[in-house]
Amino acid sequence: MSKELITRDEFSDMVRVASHRLEKNAKFVNSLNVFPVPDGDTGTNMSLTIKSGFKAVNESTSNHVGTLGKALAKGLLMGARGNSGVITSQLFRGFSKSIEDKENLSAMDLAQAFDNGVKTAYKAVMKPVEGTILTVARVASEYGMKKANETNDTVEVMSALVAGAKDGLEQTPSLLPVLKEVGVVDSGGQGLTFIYEGFLEGLSGIAGEDVYQPDEVEMDEMVNATHHQSVQGKFDTDDIEHGYCTEMMVELGEGATTDEKFDYEKMRNDLNEIGDSLLVVSDDEVIKVHVHTNYPYKVWEEGHKFGSLVKIKIDNMKIQHENIIEEDEVEPEKETAEKPKEVDFAVITVSSGAGITELFESLGVTHVINGGQTMNPSTNDFVDVLNASKAKKAIILPNNGNIVMAAKQAVDLVDIPVVVVESKTISQGMTAMFSFNPEGDLDENKENMTEALATVKSGQVTQAIRDTEIDGIKITNGHFMGIVDGKIVIDNEDIIEATEKMLDIMIDEESEVITILVGEDGSEEGAKHIEEYITSKYPDLELEIHNGGQPVYQYLVSVE
Q1: Of 394, 393, 344, 400, whose CA–CA distance to 370 is shortest?
Q2: Fewer CB in a 10 Å sphere around the end CB: N or C, the chain?
Q3: Within a 10 A sphere around the Cβ of 337, how many other Cβ atoms?
Q4: CA 464 to CA 478: how far, in whole Å?
């Protein structure tokens, strides 16, 4: 079936079927995270993200496809969960900007929209890594643009986009070393391919195979693969050279020093010369800039050329980059407090387990969002709590590398100043709270709390769900693993021995305090054995044991 134009009905069907297709295939996408811990949830995160986008489209009464595209982008933005979900929202942010004036879409409009989405997503990450969801989106767009120059049929263009996505997906193992080792594809890229396939089915009216079932050989390859990393997980802390996290918001066309017409590419290139981790987002009225540099004043001088500085911020800090462990396939639950309390200075954290929640509150956290390893909150979850708190300023502690991007997206969606302290574990979040000063300003607190993150080692003990080999360590299904700062260091059939051997690796001459959080599947008896081991072998160290009640991990351990 050929179609020259995509109308409101076709576009709505495309999004609806894409949401359905990814939801049905979410478990398979989750399985592509082969780290042998029951916390792979890329498929779940992306499914909930696209579902939020479809809900926004479905609720719109407009017959204008450009308006529906805007609704889709907003829905994805607010519902974005996990790094792959956030990147998906950026892809369709660029897509929607391209079609905002289009009542219906031609084949070329469709191809150009996907192309603009790729450009937007790549710009959102200063150091994009190939072999990820970005590669899949890029190759798909190249196929789509080529086909749009040959035909006016939107179905043919969408078919080409799907073919390109599949080609890009097949390329991911050869582009990302951790995937190449065993030939597994990127999970985020697979999720995006399902979305594109859904778009094609909704547009053409021809249903594809509903759920992909890998054959036994393929599944064996996935099961024995080294766990793959998403875009943010490829950054190397040793590469960071610039000490000031600098941000500004510029209102275009106003200000005594305005002397140039805004040129996005020129500004971005100029700023890139003086720093890294650059993000430049703009619309017709405002520019928002984030960059790590040694020359903050040069950033502000650049902004002054195009308008009035309405917001500036600088943090003297050593940025901690994400070491991603993809997470649990359990569907997230939105479980914030029914009536968030109103405060002047909100400190919002993410955790699961009643005991951990109580500990955070005792340290000064004002609001806890239920989530973490098994539940990734959405951007909207953070926005809701920030708005309900009635706070004048706020700090967010994600406590998980896969939640940081969603938390950061929330910052620009509220009217109060908010900073994200990039804690990647519960242990880091708690350590950061010891440096929190309720009388201090945001910049001071972010600097002090961020510096504190580097003073703690985070350990996790959990049970392997499959046989595999990672970083030279053979993992046996059912054995217990010790994981230190995201790296498996111990495999042992006995949970107590696994914990004790992990502690031996974590403790050094500078260690002073050990904190153990007992999970819902841990035991007080086991904790007592571990306590006896520590007091006997490390009598000079201070030890605290609490009932954390967290899922997935029997014991969470911090060494400071």
Answers
A1: 400
A2: N
A3: 12
A4: 5
Cα four-point dihedral sign 331, 37, 368, 90:
negative
Residue 368: strand, helix, or coil: strand
Contact 409, 308 (CB under 8 A): no
Q: Which amino acid is at 180?
A: K
Top CATH class of 8-234 equals mainly alpha
- The answer to whether residues 130 and 179 touch, using CB atoms and an 8 Å cutoff, is no
- Give the three-state DSSP class for 450: helix
Please check whether residue 340 is in contact with residue 301, taking contact to mean a CB–CB distance below 8 angstroms: no
For 134, the 3-state DSSP assignment is: helix
List CB contacts of 153: < 8 A, sequence separation 6 or more: 2, 3, 4, 107
Q: Residues 288, 123, 295, CA angle at the centre, nearest 5°? A: 55
pLDDT tens by residue, 507-554: 999 999 999 999 999 998 999 999 999 999 999 999 999 999 988 899
CATH topology of domain 457-559: Hypothetical Protein Tm841; Chain: A;domain 3 (3.30.1180)
**Segment 462-494, tens digit of pLDDT:** 998 777 777 788 889 899 999 999 889 999 999
Residue 194 near residue 42, CB atoms below 8 Å: no
Mutual angle of helices 426-433 and 354-362, in 10-degree steps = 20
Residue type, 259: D
The token pair at 219 is 């599944």
CATH of the domain spanning 345-453: 3.40.50.510
Which SS3 state, helix, strand or coil, does residue 463 take?
strand
Q: What is the pLDDT of residues 432-441, one digit of tens each?
A: 999 999 999 9
Give how far Cα 52 sits from Cα of 12, 48, 89, Å.
Answer: 13, 6, 10
